[in-house]
Amino acid sequence: MRITAIEEYGLRCLLTLARKGPGKQLTIPEIAELEGLSVPYATKLLSVLRKAGFVTSERGRTGGFTIARPLDQISLYEVLVALGGPLIDPAHCQRHSGQLEQCIHIENCSVHDVLGGLAGYIKEFLTDTSLQELAFGLPSAVAQQARLQVPSEQIDTTSNADRGEDASPETAKPKHLGINHD
User: Fold this and answer.
1) 11: CATH
2) Core-most of 42, 67, 88, 130, by most CB within 10 Å?
């Protein structure tokens, strides 16, 4: 599973709005500045979030963006899917069939079973984590249980800049969610 820059920064823009509180508006330049993004990139992200129904926008001098739904009714899963599509490609087996039309292991495939199981765990974890929990540091029961099972030394928190990679938001592979992007 990879978290793309669009998913990371889109989520961060949404969290910035969430932390402002219900009905509070921020303009695109304000969000861009708070998140260290370019205005065009923030515009692109907020457009995706608006089309997905997570934020509303109001035009004019007093306009801006605000959260469209109660924070406890927005799951991390639906945000990440809206920003980047399925987290694990459901067409994985069709895309990796070699030179054949269909994978020869279609009837008895341990890889398919593992990926399907992993997709289920990821979806459950992210579905059970609301934007409210993420915005205000209130871990869900699923997140607390997962933390107990993964030793902290296995979570890669190395920044792109620490690895000598381009750290600009538009090209970065952010690690803020504690997920290894490589």
Assistant:
1) 1.10.10.10
2) 42
